Amino acid sequence: MFESRITQRVRYAETDRMGVVYYANYLVWFEIGRNEYFRGRDLPYADVEARGYFLPVSEVRCRILQPARFDDEVTVRTTLAEIKSRSLKLAYRIERAGELLAQGETVHVCVNGDQKVTRIPEWMKIKLTL
């Protein structure tokens, strides 16, 4: 199973007064992981949009197990958990030196340029599941 990984350092702007990562930033990191996953499948998200398809988030789940802190080096690991005819689910793990800090999932529906739910095109399914 394909897994994308991207490592970054926690910036001061991502933390609260206690130096702990503000919870909403985990969702930003999920988005970074999602873009890297698509890029790693030779499917840059800009190309998906240029072909008239969009994948808005319809559900999100994030469980924070340990806090990330300012200047930590964290890795976002992303995998495809499920693909259906009109939606897909991505799974995320955020780690610091192999220690699991947070995990979650996002569910995306496929919509066309008119924002109508549509089937995921076959070319996209093939690239995502290779």
Give an account of the 3D structure:
The chain has 130 residues and is of the alpha+beta class. It has a single domain, classed as Thiol Ester Dehydrase, Chain A (Roll). Helices cover 24% and strands 39% of the residues. It contains three helices and seven strands. The strands form two sheets. It has a five-stranded antiparallel β-sheet. It has a two-stranded antiparallel sheet with strand order 2-7. A hairpin with a 3-residue loop joins β4 and β5 (87-96). The radius of gyration is 15 Å and the shape is elongated.
CATH class category name:
Alpha Beta
> Which outline best applies?
elongated
As a whole number of angstroms, the C-alpha radius of gyration is: 15 Å
String of helices and strands: EHHEEEEEEH
Helix content: 10-25%
The fourth-level CATH homologous superfamily is Hotdog Thioesterase
Q: Find the structural class using helix and strand composition.
A: alpha+beta
**First-to-last CA distance:** 9 Å
Work out the strand percent.
35-45%
Layout of strands and helices, then pairs:
Elements: E1 3-9, H1 24-40, H2 45-50, E2 53-54, E3 57-64, E4 73-83, E5 87-96, E6 99-109, E7 111-112, H3 122-129
Antiparallel strand pairs: 1-4, 2-7, 3-6, 4-5, 5-6
